[in-house]
Amino acid sequence: MTAPVAWDGPEGKVLPVVTAPATVLSTVGDEVDPADPAVVRLAADLVATMRVSPGCVGLAAPQVGVDAQIFAVDVTGHPKAATTHGAFVLCNAKIIEASRWKAGREGCLSVPDLTGDVKRAGRIVVSATLPGSGEAVEITTDAFEARALQHEIDHCAGKLFLDRVAGAHAIYQRKVYL
């Protein structure tokens, strides 16, 4: 098993986040060439945008208007995180094993006013490549980090968490705390 190393790429710029019903959010992203300098820049921009967004633990290219299969994740310090691999970016990720299914509440920067209960695997193995090096990696993770990875992989496949809820009874107005 290989795990990604913490993101140590170039500094990125903060990009605007698109919200539903933007078409790019329902479009299957194109596979990317991880060695392409534009992909490395996009990876850096995803990390920068994720870091300035309060409560954000993941961000996929479609959320910044790019129909590509690349996303950033960092659940470090989140109270629900059991396992964490730090901040990392994956290209062309695929889930190759999934087990321990459980419902849990999710939110999304691209759906700012709603949350929903989504059934996801509590343990997954993901195969992907790292931007820049193109190194193939396989990540085994669980709990909240597994949920975050599945959420971002869904974005790359043109799906929102709303596409996975059991029905209208499982969608909630986001609470705002002052």
Automatic annotation (TrEMBL):
Catalytic residues (positions): E152
Keywords: Hydrolase, Iron, Metal-binding, Protein biosynthesis
Cofactor names: Fe(2+)
PANTHER family recorded: PEPTIDE DEFORMYLASE
Coiled-coil positions: none
Cofactor: binding comment: Binds 1 Fe(2+) ion.
Broad enzyme group: hydrolase
Organism: Paractinoplanes hotanensis
Keyword Iron: yes
GO terms for MF: peptide deformylase activity
SUPFAM superfamilies, per the entry: Peptide deformylase
Entries under InterPro entries matching the protein: Peptide_deformylase (IPR023635), Peptide_deformylase_sf (IPR036821)
Binding, Fe cation: C108, H151, H155
This protein's name: Peptide deformylase
